[in-house]
Structure formats: C-alpha cells, structure tokens
Amino acid sequence: MQTPVFINDGMTYDGHIEARPRMHDSVSFKFRVYGLESRAAVVTKIAGATATKGEQYAAMAIASHIMEWDIAHPETKDDIPITAENVLRLHPAVGHRLYRIVMGDEPPDALPGERDDHTEDDTESEFAAAINGQSPGEAREKNLSVV
Q: How far does CA 105 lie from the centroid of its chain?
C-alpha cells in the first residue's frame, strides 16, 4: 500500500477492514484521507454537536471520502450506495473504524493477499532483542528467536 506523507488533492488509497467473527463481515474500499484543515473543520463541528448530530456529521465526513466500497444488501446482494444515511446503518464498529481511517488516525487493515509489514516473527524477534538487551534492528539482522 502506498503511504506518501504529502497528500495530493484527490489522492485515493485502497482500504480494507477485516471481518470480526460474530460481529461483522470484511469491507474493502477506496478512500481519500482528510488534510489537516479539513480534518480540523470536521472535528470542530462534531465536538460542538449533540451525540446524535455528531454521528450524523461523522457519517457525512465518511461518505464524502469513501470513493467506493464492496458493501451489498445482505438479502438482495444489490450494491449499497455510499451516502451518509447508509453509513449510519453500518455496524458501529465498521462506521467508527472508517471514520478513524479517513481522518488519518489509523491505517486500514492489510488488503486481502497483501503481507502486513509487521508479522508474528517480527514480534518474536523484537521481544528476543528486548530481553537480550539489543535493538529491534539488531534482532532483524540476526533473526533471533526466543529460547
């Protein structure tokens, strides 16, 4: 996944939210990240609102920055249009996660078939380094493991 620091106007990213068993299915989408000034305007508007109105403003913010998604009606399988009204009908965990992603507060999950940059092996090596008094970089170079 591309991760530029400078955000060109109209730049889109591929996003994915993994399924959570007994909670919600996965969602793949294309999105734009809010720039600092636009983000500040959205956050300020939400902060001054009631909880219900704040969720409506957040839904508007999400809908305006999701370019496409693979969400379909569970029975008819028809594509669900990207609107603030439909964002408000998403599972809360998905809606809140989409908000954090488009606002630039957290990354989406790795795309299906894409290797996440940080693996269990990396975690093991970093842990081994920490308990052996080495840096994570040294652990990656020596490929240490926990004994």
A: 8
Helix and strand tally (H, E) in the chain?
Answer: 6, 3
Domain that holds residue 144: 117-147
Number of domains in the chain: 2
Q: pLDDT tier at 139 (50, 70, 90 boundaries)?
A: low
Looking at the fold, whether 20 and 89 belong to one and the same domain comes out as yes
Q: What is the mean pLDDT of residues 38-48?
A: 97
Whether the per-residue pLDDT at 66 is higher than 90: the answer is: yes
Q: Are 4 and 68 in contact (CB under 8 A)?
A: no
37 burial (CB, 10 Å; 0-12 / 13-18 / 19+) is: exposed
Regarding pTM above 0.70, the answer is: yes
Residue 111 maps to a domain = no
Give CA–CA dist 76/60, Å, rounded. Answer: 25
- Evaluate whether 30 touches 66 at the Cβ level (below 8 Å): yes
3-state secondary structure of 41: helix
3-state helix, strand, coil in the chain (%, to 5): 40, 10, 45
pLDDT at 79: 97
Residues 73 and 20 in one domain: yes
